[in-house]
Amino acid sequence: MKTLVICSGGLDSVSLAHITAETRELTRLVSFNYGQRHLKELEFAAEAAERLGVPHTVIDLRPVGAALTGSALTDEIDVPDGHYAEETMKITVVPNRNAIMLTVAYGIAAANGDQAVATAVHGGDHFIYPDCRPDFVEAFDKMQRFALDGYADVSLWTPFVHRTKADIVSDGAKHNTPFDRTWSCYKGGEHHCGRCGTCVERREAFDLAGVTDPTVYEDPDFWRQAVANAEAK
């Protein structure tokens, strides 16, 4: 099945790109610049496209992102440290981000004769991000079928939506994902900070999956205490 992958450059989406390349017909990677402070993630998406031999399109959504105020990913608000599951991570929500990106991706897929759009939303996102939940995924896919009725038949593929981050690491490893060429940290520094929710989640996922983590972290041991603190609550 000809499949477009939405690829941020993060561990999840780059893993999905590699899995798609080996199990389906990967046609292209699509990324979005919405003014995120961790913009360097797009460099890793570009690398993935080159490595997999497919086109890479970056859609400029900076004017849209500027209007979606109140998120630590786009505004001058500190990205919180700690476990990904903590209440503080809600400050990283960009309203309707996935819905906007998926709408654009569906249009690109339809225009190019692709049969599916793949996105790497996973079970760990559900409690924080409304547009990562199974109900949203199912409703969005149904809406898009109406939107393209009679023009194109494009489906939504979300193989991780009921799975964990550790599952993604395990699957990504099986499909030769170069994890050191992925970017997760929301702070966008030279190296992964090791303290923000995405860094803690990333480090914990490798540990749970039993896969060696090649990531360089500024604070490589913080995740253990963050996880312990979350479990104690």
From TrEMBL:
Can you cite a GO biological process for this protein?
Answer: tRNA queuosine(34) biosynthetic process
Give the metabolic or biological pathway: Purine metabolism; 7-cyano-7-deazaguanine biosynthesis
Database matches in Gene3D superfamilies: HUPs (3.40.50.620)
For this chain's record, the cofactor binding note is: Binds 1 zinc ion per subunit.
Question: What EC identifiers does the entry list?
Answer: 6.3.4.20
Q: Which PANTHER family match?
A: 7-CYANO-7-DEAZAGUANINE SYNTHASE
Q: What is this protein called?
A: 7-cyano-7-deazaguanine synthase
Q: Which gene encodes it?
A: queC
